[in-house]
Amino acid sequence: MRNTAPMFGRFRYGYVAPAVLLVAGLLYAPFVWTAYLSLTRYDGLEPPAFVGLANFAKLFQDEALLTSTRNTLIWVIGTMVLPVGLGLLVAVLSYDIKGGAWYRVPFMLPYALSGAGLAMVWSPILSHDGIANLLLGVDTAFLQDAPANTFAMLAVWTWQQLGVNTLLFVVGLQSIPKEPIEAARLDGAAGWRLFRHVIWPLMRPLTAVVVGLALVAGLKTFDIVWVLTQGGPGRNSETLAVTMYKETFVASDYGYGSAVAVMLTVVTGLASYLYLKRQVTAT
Amino acid sequence: MIRRAVLVVLGLVWLGPTYLLLVNASRPASSYDPGSAWIPSGDFALFDNFAQALEGADLSQSLASTALYSVVSPLLGVVIGALAGYVIVVLRLRGGFWWFLLIFGGTVFPSQMLLVPLFVGYSDAGLYDSRLGLILVYTAINVPLAAFVLRNFYSGVAFSIFEAARMDGASTWRIFWRIYLPISFTALTAVFILEFTFIWNDLIFGLTLSQTEEVRPVMTAIAGLMTDVYAGTPVPVGLAAGLVVSLPTVVLFLATQRLFARGLSLGSVQ
């Protein structure tokens, strides 16, 4: 093939150029710029003034940031446990019974709602004079007090996400080899024991992927919080992504907002790395 | 038996909010009362409510813009990504793997790291609050995945196809458009659907880079319906809006399910 190379020589770079230019210009360059801005004081009007690590020092003294770190942690653990765990439960209960697909319909319906539409739908249910309070005969401010408001939103998220996780697990369960399960059944294993010692080990790789995706999604939680509470009341339901947005575009503190973005990126990278490493060493 | 019982109980809990959503989104806007929200109204006003959302919040312009973004950007994205995959795999670009790594590396940046420079840069370049600006950024975000899937796909295509076409005197450009792009149709479609869904549901870029009703994408507009003028939006109207804006992604996904599954598995074949 080498001898034909000169025939379509230099212009080859023209084929890769659009992709490289777009990615470099709109992804890499902003990334580097944000990293630089995190070391500056910048309000978008005056040119950025270099302040070293001052923004990062402020991160550690900022009480709002402590709150949003706590909330983000709740989101991360919550999304790794609830939608994934319940999804696995529903999948295991329904994958090999007659009409199993029908039992799964209620869990699939909420997945049709997307993004802001989801929050739109839950707002009148959770609001103070909302449906949930009246139906349950209670007077709870679901979206008011922290950290209860984060848990309420987590419940909404679980309601929406369960279906897709169930679907992934059902596909996984249906594609695991039948022989080990049959053999274990013949040996008298059933129910929990069958699941724990036969099915679960076979499902581990898939579960690792689903949990990993939930980990990253949980760290970046933004949409649902933004639409349901905007991080409030006050700042008590903010996640790191919401704090970043508010510091930057509400408080016009671009430097500090960038520092929060950098922190979020470092935490996401580190968490993904540690998680992947653990998965690799565990298998 | 216990299994079915658990499934039914859990299923009923899950159906509750779905039921409330459907009943109240179909209720005439004026007759909403949280106390009797679980009783169907007997009327079917879903479309009236949605029409009201279209007018009141000017969702129609946002819908049109979002439709534009979620079709044009993925189209550009898959073609640009396919071109990169083609030149790297088929034309054997020197250092091709590094070029690929550079492009694919674009997936690792969280959107929070992009917002400030995009906002400032767009303001300076006159791209802030413009459709072109949003199309550009959405396209850039789509390119890495497209390049990834298409590079994999083209690795599995016999090189003799290319050689034969060269023998017949076709230019590399022509071979791409006439042969390589068409044979990767299913893979392209799978990527297109994923990216369509991503853009349709995007909130944060719309929030950061647009302002006026003509440019603002629909999820951002919906969020505004809640956060800016929530007091003024009747609940049934809001519910109908949330329901209807979610439909396009569902319809697209259901309509292309088979193709989607096939395209992704093709994409992963080495």
From TrEMBL, chain A:
Alphabetically ordered keywords of this record: Cell membrane, Membrane, Transmembrane, Transmembrane helix, Transport
Gene Ontology cellular component?
Answer: plasma membrane
Q: Which organism is it from?
A: Nonomuraea fuscirosea
- Residue ranges spanning the membrane: these are 12-33, 73-95, 107-126, 146-171, 254-276
Per the record, the similarity remark reads: Belongs to the binding-protein-dependent transport system permease family.
Query: What is the protein name given in its UniProt record?
Result: Carbohydrate ABC transporter membrane protein 1 (CUT1 family)
SUPFAM superfamilies (UniProt xref): MetI-like
Q: Which residues form a coiled coil?
A: none
Membrane topology of the entry: Multi-pass membrane protein
Q: Which PROSITE patterns match?
A: ABC_TM1 (PS50928)
Give the source lineage, highest ranks first. Bacteria, Bacillati, Actinomycetota, Actinomycetes, Streptosporangiales
Residues of the signal peptide: none
Q: Give its localization.
A: Cell membrane
- Provide the ABC transmembrane type-1 domain boundaries: 69-275
Which BP terms in the Gene Ontology apply to this protein?
transmembrane transport
Domain of life where this protein originates: Bacteria
Classification via InterPro entries: ABC_transporter_permease (IPR051393), MetI-like (IPR000515), MetI-like_sf (IPR035906)
UniProtKB/TrEMBL annotation, chain B:
User: Membrane-crossing residues?
Assistant: 67-91, 98-120, 132-154, 175-200, 235-255
Among the GO biological process terms of this entry, one is: transmembrane transport
The protein's topology relative to the membrane is: Multi-pass membrane protein
Q: Where in the cell is it found?
A: Cell membrane
Quote the CDD domains the UniProt record gives.
Answer: TM_PBP2
Report domain ABC transmembrane type-1 positions. 63-256
Q: Which PROSITE patterns match?
A: ABC_TM1 (PS50928)
| Record flagged with keyword Repressor | no
Annotated Gene Ontology cellular components are:
plasma membrane
Q: Which UniProt keywords apply?
A: Cell membrane, Membrane, Transmembrane, Transmembrane helix, Transport
Superkingdom of source: Bacteria
Q: Which family does it belong to?
A: Belongs to the binding-protein-dependent transport system permease family.
What name does the UniProt record give this protein?
Carbohydrate ABC transporter membrane protein 2 (CUT1 family)
The organism is: Nonomuraea fuscirosea
